[in-house]
Amino acid sequence: MHTNEKPTATRLQTMKIPSIISAYVKAKNDRDTDAVVACFTDDAVVHDEGQQMTGLTAIKEWCDNSFKKYQYTIAPTGIVERDQEAVLTATLAGNFPGSPVSLDFCFTIRGGKIAGLRID
Known about the structure:
alpha+beta; Nuclear Transport Factor 2, Chain: A; six-stranded mixed sheet; 6 strands
């Protein structure tokens, strides 16, 4: 075991987060819209803040708007997988009312990409 391993990396490895979800979290934390969009299927649906975004164009707009409106980081704290769904619990901290908050990211994975995401 290497002692120079970052605590976050260790925690993520211990949680065994599916690679596409890790890629999504990294892209969001890097504020990289193109990398976020690349995580989704062409017909993906995202539910966030009472809105539904369907398809890559709408998801790109949602991502761009959230990056303009808020600066935040996602810190995973747990994950539960069942059937085709993975629920990632994470702490979001940033410049929004009520920060930090714990949210559940409910992912539906299809063909190695995110087909659905509901943020509660």
